[in-house]
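Please describe our next protein:
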Amino acid sequence: MRTVTNGKHDYDSRALDSQAILLLAVQALLGTANALSGTFLPVYLWKASQSFSLIGWFNFTQFLVSGLTFWLAGKWVKEHNKMNSLRLGVALSGVFYFVVLMLGKSAITYVVPLGMLLGIGNGCFWLAFNVVYFEITEPGNRDRFNGWAGLLGSGAGIIAPWISGWLITSNKGERGYSIIFTISSVIFAVAVVLSFWLKKRETSGTYEWFQGFRVLRERGNPWRHAVPAIISQGIREGVFMFLIGLLVYIATKNEGKLGNFSLVTSLVALGSFWLVGRILKPKRRRAAMLIGAAAITAIIAVLFMPLSYKTLLIFGLGTALFMPLYIIPMTSTVFDLIGADENSARQREEYVILREAGLTVGRVIGVTSYLLILPYIDRSPYIVPSLMLLVGAFPLVSWWLMRGLLGRGSGVQERAS
């Protein structure tokens, strides 16, 4: 927030302005719609196909196309209208659930094109979102914004999946899924309308298609540490984003239990994101991220116990409690790196795309490892937990690579909002 004192501009480094709050509202609607239907989408595909491989290929396609969309849409976002990219992304996400609704169980025949559709939607939205997020926040309030984003996401995860689980179990056959897919499509439409109150952002400069490659070739460039750390973050996400919910359903055979799982874990995550977002300062990021990375890795050990709702709930609660300590410093530090100097800030679109390229590479590696172990999944009950421990330990690699960059945000010159 900008204030004027003795003719000079001062800045409240912690406050969020109206545009930041509106952006959070759009993200919250997106999160709510995804929590309603996205939580149960792997279950829906599993019930229709009984195929772990099909779900893996759906996510593989989604992640790969999303990353490619980031790169291709970069020129549009940098040189033309980033807000239209954001709106298109939200709209396509709504179209995705509408198409799934229309296809019904035959959706399993079209998992690759459906993955492409969702990937394009996610790519358009998150590219524009991340650029706008960078533009309307500063090093002093970036942790607060990420704290609020996590809090709102957790809030959506508290009630939305529980409602979905109740609707699915209360309605026989496909009716429950039809209801939640319809509600999600409507919420996406509301988010598109709300986004028109976000101000059109100025554009400047020419899009550099291969800026990321040039950056990674420069000796001593901090992105040479940051990008492998981001890849490590993506490796974990590529598996955990869809597999945990699916395991909860397989262990319980009950969508209502999955809704309860999401409710309880999201409630814990909400409190944790709120607390970490309020107390975390740039100088504390290094210690916070190490604690978070170590804790979310250690809690995977419970998955080596017999698969049950209880063991999965212990895992979910531990992850929800400590994830903010890992993800907030990671995200804030990378975006502080984008704004480290005027030249970096001018090329923010290219750096946002470089970040997403790292996440895409990591997620594809994660899903590929999942697909590779599928032929052996019936040989031992420890195959899946071993995979999850392997990919789930990569946050520690992220911390190791980022440790020299964590805390730099406090020294970055703050930009006018």
In short: The longest strand covers residues 2-5. The chain has one domain: 2-411. The chain has a mean pLDDT of 85.
